[in-house]
Amino acid sequence: MSKDTKGDKDMGESDDSDNVLFKKLRKLINLIDQLRDCGVNEYIKLPRICSLGTQSSGKSSVLESIVGLDFLPRGDGVVTRRPLELRLCHINSGEPWAIFEERKGTKFTDFIKVRETIEALTDEVCKTNKNIIDKPIVLNVYSQTCPDLTLVDLPGVTRVPIGDQPKNIEEITKNMARRYVDDPLTIILCVIAANSDIATSDGLKLAKEIDTTGSRTLGVLTKLDIMDAGTDARKALMNEEIPLKLGYVGVKNRSKQDLNNKISMAETSRKEKEFFKSHPAYKNLPAGHLGTDVLINKLTKIYFRIIRENLPKIVKAINERLKSAEEELQGLGQPMPTDDAGKMSLLFNMINEYCDLFRKVLQGKYNNKRVNFLEGEGGFKIKILYKKLLEEFTGDYKATAGYTDENINYALTIHEGDSIPGFPSVDAFIYLLRPQLEKLKDPIEECFTEVFQYLDFLSGKILEKTFTRFPQAVNDMSDLVSNYLLEERDKTKYLIDSVVDMEINYLFTNDYDYLNNFTTFIPKQQRQQMMKEGNKDGPGNHQDKDINEFKPQPSVDAKTIFIKEIRNRIEAYFKLIVRNLRDSIPKIMGNYLVKEIEENMQLKLYNKLYNAKEITDLLSEPESVAERRKELNELIKVMKNAQKIIRRDPDLMTVMQININDSDITSTSTKEKKEKKEEKKEEKEEEKKEEKDEEDNEEKGKKKGKKKKGKKKKEKEKEKEKKEEEKKEDEKKKEVKEEVKEEVKEEKKEEKKEEKKEEEEINIDDI
User: Fold this and answer.
1) Are 234 and 285 a contacting pair, CB within 8 Å?
2) What letter does residue 219 receive in the DSSP assignment?
3) pTM value?
4) Which of 127, 144, 156, 546 is a plausible cystine mate for 55, CB 3.0–4.6 Å?
5) Of 234, 180, 170, nearest to 211 (Cα)?
6) Separation of alpha carbons 262 and 254, rounded Å
7) Which of 226, 232, 335 has its CA nearest to residue 281?
């Protein structure tokens, strides 16, 4: 803070609470500056204050008044051609000094040299012409006269080009200003010359264009002392012309005569205060609208508030950017080796990763971050395909639904041959069953094809993820993997075809249910039903007879019995085959294809790649990948340094919890100020009345006071008695609790003793 911040209160100087604020503010400003120095602002927006104004609006003079030192270049035309970032640090004692970031080895105590160095650094980048370059000069100033602030002095908005300046100089200066102040964390210090029309100020227009609500723009009115006679800026200062949430502050800078006479900054501050105190238009304005000290006070509070409010977000953003960068860098892998041995080692490591990912996905293990991109894929989808296998042939499906009795009778007739009459031929059974079993081949083929295609798809997806760095090698690796998968496919396909052919061509079963229910000529229930239909005497005469003793009545046709027998046996055996194939085919696929890939792919690929040097030739990263890795490494370095900076100060959270009244920051209108004054007057009048009433009642109160004192004593004694009784009750309760605890302990001890005795008895019995 400036040396005059403890001056007159009517000029808006700080109180004790402000002093606490200024002490704590240094911590936050240092933190933000350190974060900016380590490069965080390249990735995350940080709070700052930027001065904005037209050419010759007095920005440099305002900044010098804030700093309390004479050090900025002066002259006609465009003086500021590079943004100047001023990092101000208040010191309690000693002479002022400065350090340029571009001249870190040099400590400046002569501020004339500081001015010359600013000009030299400007010419180094902008040359000797009048070009404007967006490359800031960073200057650290340590002084008793300056507050703890960070300010950026931007080149003024210029309409008319000078010298070698481009014709679109106005567009260049405005665009530069936009880049700096467009960020919502940037406070706009808009400097406006009061001796011109404020409404037409290019600086204010630009500020309103960027900050449409006026919530982060603080107006500074300069040149109040050279306004036309009879005019003043009271309405503007009271925020009644072009309202800004942060309001306006009027200042009086040094005149040309003051500069020529080399008047000190301290004398300039004294003259500023005398000017506003004596000026007829400004001397009666409410406090908080005039003077450099007011400006410093407001800027300090505004800057502290914006840092405090946004620092948690900044810390969170740093952590998130670091995490995402590390994950992305991990996905890119290690830098590419240059020798063949290193390339082969890298290739084998990538194959390990590929096979490991493939295995985990097939097993449904997604706890690894590397496979998160494949959640919703994997082995469970293959299990779904298994479940659907031959599903349409289960349930109520009838294999003989397409056969009429005539069809079955025809089959029985043509296959009688030399069989004994009364016995259905097995050839008729096979003749009718085999076409139904042949229907199972196509669904099995489709299921196997879908499983293989999904494995191939999954493999390709994981290959692309693993070999992202080497798109040229992806195709070659894909061919190797596909060839291996095709080999395993053909082996598995042979086994599946063999099993299916076995089930279709060789009819046999040891299935208990089939043998128990379908080896009789006619099942028991069906036999009883047929006997009901063919025997007028009813089923009772035949209920206990053996099937071999059963002789159907003449009304029951033998062919009908044979037809029903064939239907029953075909349906039962068909369901048996479907059940067998639904179990065996997925097991074959799972064991000889899926599990084979899980367990042996890595070794197979090793063998194929061991002598394949042409593959390693393809392990070359695109320039974009190498550049991105470089960018990510730099980002990670910056964010880790930022985390270290934040962790250095354990008192940071307490600093952030300091409260600032928004009323100290935001501007109010004259009407509001008047209302507040009237309210204060009314409060004072009420206080005076109350004092008079108290004086009149003092005598009466003395008499009553004695009685009240007696009552109070009695009440106090009663309260003491109550408290003592409560204490006694509490003590009794504690004693009871302790007694209970002791009893419980004793009970537990006895229980343990009994348990030990029981254990000893058990051990004795065992012996």
Assistant:
1) yes
2) E
3) 0.55
4) 156
5) 180
6) 10
7) 232
- What residue ranges do the domains of the chain occupy? 9-14+44-292, 340-610
Q: Residue 183: exposed, middle, or buried by beta-carbon count in 10 A (0-12, 13-18, 19+)?
A: middle
Q: Tell which wins on pLDDT, 392 or 74.
A: 392
| pLDDT on residue 683 | 64
Contact 133, 176 (CB under 8 A): no
- List C-alpha distances in Å: 665 to 238, 242, 598: 14, 17, 68
- Going from the C-alpha of 296 to that of each of 25, 255, 309, 462, the distances in angstroms are 13, 21, 20, 60
Q: Which of the given ranges, 186-190, 668-672, 729-733, has the highest pLDDT on average?
A: 186-190
pLDDT at 543 (0 to 100): 44
CATH 1.10.287.1080 fits 9-14+44-292, yes or no: no
* C-alpha gyration radius of the chain: 48
Q: Which CATH superfamily is domain 340-610 in?
A: Dynamin, middle domain (1.20.120.1240)
From the list 80, 85, 78, 127, the residue with the least C-alpha distance to 102 is 85
Q: Please report, for the chain, how many H helices and E strands are present, in that order.
A: 24, 8
User: What letters, b where the CB count within 10 A reaches 16 and e where it falls short, cover 566-580?
Assistant: bbbbbbbbbbbbbee
For residues 96 and 144, the answer to whether their CB atoms sit within 8 Å is yes
Q: Give the Cβ contact number of residue 426 at 10 Å.
A: 12
Q: What is the C-alpha separation between 679 and 220, in angstroms, rounded?
A: 30
**Token output for 376:** 């919703």
C-alpha closest to that of 172 among 164, 181, 184, 161 = 161
Q: Helix (H, G, I), strand (E, B), or coil: what is residue 419? A: coil
Strand order in the sheet with 149-153: 97-100, 137-143, 84-90, 149-153, 48-53, 186-193, 217-222, 248-250
Cβ 150 vs Cβ 302: under 8 Å: no
- Bridge partners for 248 per DSSP: 219
CA atoms within 13 A on the CB side of 351: 26
Count of beta carbons in the 10 Å neighbourhood of residue 196 = 13
DSSP per-residue codes, 303-364: HHHHHHHHHHHHHHHHHHHHHHHHHHHHHH-SPPPSSHHHHHHHHHHHHHHHHHHHHHHHHT
In which band, very low, low, confident or very high, does the pLDDT at 691 lie, cut at 50, 70 and 90? low
Q: Which range, of 40-49, 206-215, 597-606, 609-618, averages the lowest pLDDT?
A: 609-618
Q: Return the bridge partners of 87, or none.
A: 140, 150
State the maximum Cα–Cα separation within the chain, in Å, rounded to a whole number: 145
Nearest to 319 by CA among 693, 649, 723, 640: 640
With 0-12 CB in 10 A as exposed, 13-18 as middle and 19+ as buried, what is 626?
middle
Q: What is the DSSP letter of 142?
A: E
Whether the predicted pLDDT of 19 surpasses 70: no
| 220 DSSP β-pair partners | 191, 249
- Using DSSP's 3-state secondary structure scheme, residue 157 falls into strand
Query: Can you tell me the distance from the alpha carbon of 289 to that of 679, in angstroms, rounded to the nearest whole number?
Result: 21
Helix (H, G, I), strand (E, B) or coil at 250: strand
* Beta pairing class for 84-90 and 149-153: antiparallel
Quickly tell me which residue has 């009407």 as its tokens. 671
Helices 471-505 & 441-466, crossing angle to 10 degrees?
160
HEC per residue, 50-62: EEEEECCCCHHHH
Alpha helices in 182-291 (DSSP H): 202-210, 234-237, 256-260, 265-278
